């Protein structure tokens, strides 16, 4: 039976439909690293403002970020800042997977430029597969299985 | 000190430089799901052959896939098939992170179209952060810390 909406049935495709455009993941990396304002994101990424604006609107419509107005100092023009929703916070896992893959497979001579740490303990963490009993499973021991068509 | 090569120092950017173009991750999804031949990938993805060819060359140059010739039946024209290198196998984690995020945050009404399973046990697995003692760490408890400049 065809999928009722015109969304792709594959969740990888749906995710890439929202996140797979050029700049999108780098904009999110900027927000994770504390650039919340349009001007900060633009300066950090060196991206054209119309493109940044378009990508931010897509991310807002997709429920990944929300836009807040701020006014500082009082009486000045209102400006926008961008903050992650819970769905946006979950994307940290995707960025971390890209980071880890780059450090493992195309390392820079002077070592990684950033590390992943547990906030509460400072301990290093990596991204991996975990089974329902909390045990890590090797990447080579995982495969994708198609769901039976209902 | 500036980075010695003209590669970005951030590993997320380096990974996206190789993998972030439109179609690239969907081509890899095709290879993971058993489409090894050019014609199979083209039919599954409905992608223009010059674009597929360009993306496959980039992935081969980046060490993610290798191209093998096959000839079947014997005496017929030689054709190419594409296979994952160990670095390409590791990318399964990135695709799985996109899949999981899509199923959690933009689910389709009839449920996921595919599941992640451990080959050896058939058990479901998810993608997450793991500390050095093998314990899962919540996504909200992880942050990225810049390395000290050397």
Describe the structure.
In chain A, 39% of the residues lie in helices and 21% in strands. Chain A is α+β, with helices and mostly antiparallel strands and 150 residues long. Chain A folds into two domains: 8-86, Arc Repressor Mutant, subunit A; 91-105 and 114-142, no CATH class. Chain A has a two-stranded antiparallel sheet with strand order 1-2. In chain A, strands 4-5 form a two-stranded antiparallel ribbon. The longest helix of chain A is centred in the middle third of the chain and has 14 residues, at 92-105. The model of chain A has no long low-confidence stretch (mean pLDDT 91). At the A-B interface, helix 1, helix 2, helix 5, helix 6 and strand 3 of A face helix 1, helix 2, helix 5, helix 6 and strand 3 of B. Strand 3 (114-118) of chain A pairs antiparallel with strand 6 (142-146) of chain B.
**The CATH superfamily title of the largest domain in chain A:** Winged helix-like DNA-binding domain superfamily/Winged helix DNA-binding domain
Are there runs of chain A of 5+ residues with pLDDT below 50, and where? none
Rg for CA atoms of chain A: 19 Å
Q: How many angstroms does the end-to-end distance of chain A come to?
A: 8 Å
Instruction: Give the spatial strand order of the biggest sheet of chain A.
Output: 1-2
Quaternary structure classification: homodimer
Total beta-strand segments of chain A: 6
CATH class of the largest domain in chain A: Mainly Alpha
The best one-word shape of chain A is globular
SS element count, helices of chain A: 6
Average pLDDT score of chain A = 91
